[in-house]
Design goal:
The chain is an alpha/beta fold. Helices cover 44% and strands 14% of the residues. It is built from 16 helices and 19 strands. The chain has helices spanning 4-32, 45-65, 68-92, 110-133, 135-163, 202-211, 235-244, 254-263, 265-276, 289-292, 318-333, 346-350, 364-374, 410-431, 481-488, 536-545; strands at residues 177-178, 185-187, 191-197, 223-225, 228-229, 232-233, 279-284, 307-308, 314-316, 353-355, 377-379, 383-390, 438-442, 457-460, 471-472, 476-477, 510-517, 526-533, 549-552. Strands 7-12-3-13-14-4-15 form a 7-stranded mixed beta sheet, covered by helices on one side.
Length: 558
């Protein structure tokens, strides 16, 4: 027969940990990031609840059957996991990396990791000593604190459910979105193709070439710009800036800034002229919110061609969804030293929801698989300006053959990206459109340390042929992308700025790199602006000296 007291304690402690990990944690993650997820609350909540109830029943029964002393020890450990996990989420995750930000996962400074672990150990030792020496006090602490924490989280949970937007529960029947139907179609005439390999820095290229000296040989017809600045560090606002040329305005909300740059007269004129030159504009990224920041893809309609409002048909991988949300929940709760085990990359959750025949391939392996299966097709109805954003080296999970592998090195992933580029170029050659194409292979931003802030930048003009890729240190930046595209399209580009071809070898040019970060002296996120003249060494010198200007954002992006 069950001991009623043991049964009660076992139930409450099991409920606390299970509810925190499987119910409240996933809900809090989901509702705080609704716009970032393609799945709905109802597509995982019921399953999570069933798993929670099943584990709760089994855990309660097993704990109750344990001998008294062992029961106290195990219960103390579970209680500590709950309390310390709550403290971790509420107070100790202040410098926690956003999931998917770092390509090689979460890294904690040694001192921070040790201090964090000591807090966990102190709580554990304290509770165990209390259970052995002060039984009555231990019982009250476990009972009342557990009930308190359950009550607090249950209240917050209900609040999340009640205040959540409609998009958390129901997928919009009709919504403007980027469409991937023609992602593997190019023009039979003229093509301007921009590949944005996320996070691919010039340093990553150098590291790759030390291991694979022939790794970029497929780009022998391309000129390599070794002194290229991304202007903005981060996919936001870099992608929006690349496609509009609009400078960030820190005095207004991000959504207003984004709406303004897409409606800007010069932006409107650029795309109007591009269309007049018979160019169809296709933009392929699953991160379309960084282009529109809450405005929806409708603001791109008169500029971008692959916009659709057809009903969205999706397939949800429920198993992957449950696994991923559980990992995310654990990532928040566990001590710093264990977070690397639960770090979730973009590739892991980008595959949860798949558009049925209409989605955009964004991960390296997904893009490459479809390219190998079907190749490229050509369209003779228009010229094409293609802006293709891939995950690149933002995650180290691509092998040298371009296939998915859970953990690889930066060198392997970078080499795999080149394998994919080679396959794409070979398809252009097969169709007979390679020679007349303008092709740019670059990145939205570089890495997160000084030596790694510049980006790769390869470009091939129509008719450009070399045995080996020429290299120039001309000081270019993404401020020059739209003028360069305009020039290659045969437009008067000077009204949009300077093309990369307006800058020469060894030329000195003042450039500014904007880095979005946090500063203890400002309540909101800030931009550190580093203005420098020269190459990467000059940039490093300026970073060491400190930002030229600090601008507080009106609001953070994340």
């Amino acid at each position: 027969m069950f001991d009623k007291k043991k049964l009660l304690w076992s139930f409450i402690v099991s409920f606390l940990l299970g509810f925190m990990l499987l119910v409240f944690g996933p809900a809090e993650i989901f509702f705080a990031n609704v716009s970032e997820f393609a799945f709905l609350y109802g597509e995982f909540a019921g399953y999570m609840a069933m798993i929670f109830v099943g584990i709760l029943i089994v855990s309660t029964v097993v704990l109750t059957l344990l001998p008294e002393r062992i029961h106290s020890m195990v219960l103390s450990v579970l209680f500590v996991l709950s309390v310390a996990g709550y403290l971790q989420v509420m107070f100790l995750n202040k410098n926690l990396d956003l999931l998917g930000v770092n390509p090689d996962g979460y890294h904690v400074p040694l001192t921070q990791g040790i201090l964090n672990l000591l807090i966990w150990l102190a709580v554990l030792v304290g509770v165990i000593i209390l259970s052995l020496r002060k039984r009555e006090i231990w019982e009250k602490v476990v009972l009342y604190l557990s009930i308190l924490l359950i009550g607090m989280q249950a209240t917050a949970f209900v609040s999340l459910l009640v205040t959540a937007p409609d998009e958390a529960y129901e997928r919009a029947k009709v919504d403007d979105r980027l469409w991937g139907k023609d992602q593997y179609t190019v023009s039979a005439g003229k093509n301007i193709i921009v590949f944005v390999l996320d996070y691919f820095s010039s340093l990553y290229l150098q590291q790759m070439l030390t291991v694979y000296p022939d790794g970029a040989d497929c780009l022998h017809d391309f000129t390599y710009y070794s002194n290229a600045d991304c202007t903005y560090y981060g996919t936001f606002p870099s992608l929006a800036h690349m496609l509009t040329g609009g400078e960030v305005d820190t005095t207004v909300p991000n959504s207003e800034w984004c709406r303004n740059i897409w409606k800007d007269d010069l932006t409107t004129d650029f795309y109007q002229k591009l269309h007049e030159n018979h160019y169809q504009v296709n933009v392929y990224t699953t991160d379309f919110d960084v282009l529109t920041v809450g405005n929806g893809c409708g603001i791109l309609r008169d500029k971008v061609s692959n916009i659709t409002d057809e009903p969205r048909e999706v397939e949800v991988d429920t198993g992957l969804l449950l696994k991923t949300l559980t990992k995310m929940s654990c990532y928040r709760i566990v001590p710093d030293v264990l977070k690397t085990q639960f770090y979730t990359n973009v590739s892991e959750y980008s595959l949860i929801v798949q558009d049925m025949g209409q989605g955009i391939a964004h991960t390296n392996s997904d893009f490459y698989t479809k390219l190998r299966e079907d190749g490229l097709q050509e369209d003779d109805s228009a010229n094409y300006f293609i802006f293709q954003h891939l995950i690149g080296t933002h995650e180290f999970n691509t092998d040298v053959n371009g296939n998915y592998q859970e953990k690889t090195s930066v060198e392997e992933t970078a080499r795999g990206c080149m394998t994919i580029m080679e396959a794409y170029l070979n398809e252009l050659k097969r169709l007979g459109v390679y020679d007349d194409a303008t092709i740019i292979i670059t990145a939205d931003h570089g890495g997160d340390w000084k030596e790694d802030m510049q980006i790769i930048y390869f470009i091939k003009q129509p008719g450009e042929v070399h045995e080996k890729s020429p290299v120039t240190n001309a000081p270019i930046s993404h401020c020059d992308l739209l003028p360069t595209v305009a020039q290659m399209a045969g437009m008067d580009y000077t009204k949009y700025g300077k093309s990369i071809y307006d800058f020469t070898q060894d030329e000195q040019r003042e450039r500014t790199l904007w880095v979005r970060t946090k500063d203890p002296d400002y309540p909101e996120d800030v931009y550190y602006r580093y203005t420098y003249t020269g190459d990467i060494l000059a940039l490093i010198t300026q970073v060491d000296a400190g930002p030229t200007v600090i601008e507080q954002m009106y609001e953070p992006y994340y």
